[in-house]
Amino acid sequence: MFCASAFYKLSFMASKLQRLHRLAETTLQSATKRPRTMTTAESSMKDAFGKYADYLNQLNDKRERVVKASRDITINSKKVIFQVQRISKYNREEVIEKAEKDLAAVTAQYVARLVKELEGTDFWKLRRAYSPGVQEYVEAATLCKFCKTGTLLNLDEINAALLPLSDPSHEPLQINVLDYLLGLADLTGELMRLAIGRISDGELEFAEKICKFVREIHRELTLLAPNMDDSFEMKTKMDTMLQSVKKIENACFSVHVRGSEYIPLLGSDVPSYPLLGLSELE
Q1: What is the sign, positive or negative, of the torsion defined by CA atoms of 159, 163, 168, 169?
Q2: Are 214 and 188 spatial neighbours (Cβ–Cβ below 8 Å)?
Q3: What is the pLDDT of residue 45?
Q4: pTM, two decimal places
Q5: Cα separations (Å) of 220 from 193, 214, 216, 223, 252?
Q6: Contact predicate 118/167, CB 8 Å
Q7: CB-hemisphere CA count at 13 Å for 162?
Q8: Are 155 and 175 in contact (CB under 8 A)?
Q9: Which residues of 243-260 are buried (b: 16+ CB within 10 A; e: fewer)?
Q10: What pLDDT, on the 0 to 100 scale, is given for residue 7?
Q11: Which of 13, 33, 122, 254 has the smallest count of CB within 10 Å of its CB?
Q12: What gap in Å lies between CA 242 and CA 245, rounded to an integer?
């Protein structure tokens, strides 16, 4: 009796295991024969993310090209600035003419390439990429204008010069106010070097003119900087600008206070270190 009952239970369990095994095989074959198909919603989402990925890749590639163009503008604008710093009372016209030709070459070759890269796009999105080059270009252009005419090159004049570089069918690239003011802040440092050099060559009137010009720029930007939205970089440059103003003022002050002792030496081969408020070098 006991053996019959055990045999019945074993037969029932074996039959149940066989049915489960056949069910698993059937399910596996069904899954193999009928692959999962993508729904319409999933397909559209995949296409959308594919478009986003392509857009970001293109934007990153464009940013790299814009950074390269900005770097080229920076390098060649510095060469224009170095050319202007060679100015003296003996070669003024020659140096300014050469600097203007170099600046025109920078505009036609490197700035034009930047404009071409940014045409037809929201160029404000890439401002951080090209801002350093634009600031250096503003610095070089304004320095040339001051050395030639003694006046400031304003933003409208710079943008008017860049307008022919743009395709009329696209929105023209315009230098914004912030980049212009940042370039103007850098200009004061170059004017400080120029003023010190002119004092050493005996051009006291030109140095005083630079001093008044730089002081005026600093005064106007001091009033403007606190009200600027993105003013962190400007505030940093304002400290450097103040140091430049002080250096020019100290040099001019030394000339007026102690200049009578050293004016005969100005422009000669004899170094006049006390003229600049420094002790004589042994």
Answers
A1: negative
A2: yes
A3: 79
A4: 0.75
A5: 21, 10, 6, 5, 21
A6: no
A7: 24
A8: yes
A9: ebbebbeebbebbeeebe
A10: 44
A11: 33
A12: 5
